[in-house]
């Protein structure tokens, strides 16, 4: 059999995995070590000089991490990958590699709050300026570009507004101007969306989320070209030090093996939950790419294999309605993070995106009535029962009028 012709789901388990050559172990071993022994002084010197392949120190490379990086490169269709200690370590590692003082970034509206905070810090301390734009509109992107723009940084779907960005169109425009496109693919995973195939230059994951899938690790991964990734490894990873522990890498490899079956169930459940929410009188708007009411529903059908397991919705009663709902759930867990087996709910405006100034949050659509749900793997009827018990006391009287921004997207 031609192992290179395996389907994506089979590659999750077999693509880069090989039995341990020493022991025959089916599962790649955990190399829980900080450093590696040299045979002699010459070998140590050659490895530090890059004249000989081999391991030196786990911050620079580790066999367990190498297994993970090979797996992620294969799944994203990339030449190479670098593992980090968190999603934000991956984001900062990539951006610090790509940017210097005086450069300019265009970022998608509504990005993760800590990414916003990082870009804010880069501007304050290193004079790397960022312009936020509604990248669902190519004219908005074109208007935000400058001669010093070096990076277009985006999420799609966007956290938490669930907007989709046309990766082919954005990448084509960027390529014409010599700008790198960096995509946070956390919400979709490579099972549902592969940005490099659509023209992006680098992809970042908070592997804490769907890739790990069980809420028991924190990790990040960056993938891209071999030279680019090696430069990231030998600069920002080595010198800033955001290395993933071998044990977390081993856990992550375990989680990745079940990604397909988990994502399939996340999607099935999310579709049912989204339809339920759309019909509930206490819900003014449901933001889910799998619904025909989503403004980029057609793009979702062509850019993604399925619409994913994340939903946002606007509840009646503004902040008070959001508080009533979040305090009323029992099965669903009120917590940040996403992509694990349990259903998680949170309030972006006061939690994950609270670092963004209020006027910017409003412009981006991160309003006080917005709730984000990471739909889990429970029986959908149980999730719906819990949501019903939390929504029914709020009441409501149908759909709220579209905001100006919603009208542009409709």
Automatic annotation (TrEMBL):
Residues annotated with N6-(pyridoxal phosphate)lysine modification: 209
UniProt-listed Enzyme Commission number(s): 4.4.1.11, 4.4.1.2
Swiss-Prot/TrEMBL keywords: Lyase, Pyridoxal phosphate
Cellular component annotations (GO), alphabetically ordered: cytoplasm
MF GO annotations: homocysteine desulfhydrase activity; methionine gamma-lyase activity; pyridoxal phosphate binding
Swiss-Prot/TrEMBL cofactor(s): pyridoxal 5'-phosphate
Reactions the enzyme catalyzes: L-homocysteine + H2O = 2-oxobutanoate + hydrogen sulfide + NH4(+) + H(+); L-methionine + H2O = methanethiol + 2-oxobutanoate + NH4(+)
Matching SUPFAM superfamilies: PLP-dependent transferases
Highest rank taxon of the organism: Bacteria
CDD domains attached to this UniProt entry: CGS_like
Alphabetized InterPro entries for the sequence: Cys/Met-Metab_PyrdxlP-dep_enz, Cys_met_metab_PP, L-Met_gamma_lys, PyrdxlP-dep_Trfase, PyrdxlP-dep_Trfase_major, PyrdxlP-dep_Trfase_small
GO biological process, one term: methionine biosynthetic process
Keyword Lyase: yes
The family this protein is said to belong to: Belongs to the trans-sulfuration enzymes family. L-methionine gamma-lyase subfamily.
Official protein name in the record: L-methionine gamma-lyase
UniProt source species: Melghirimyces thermohalophilus
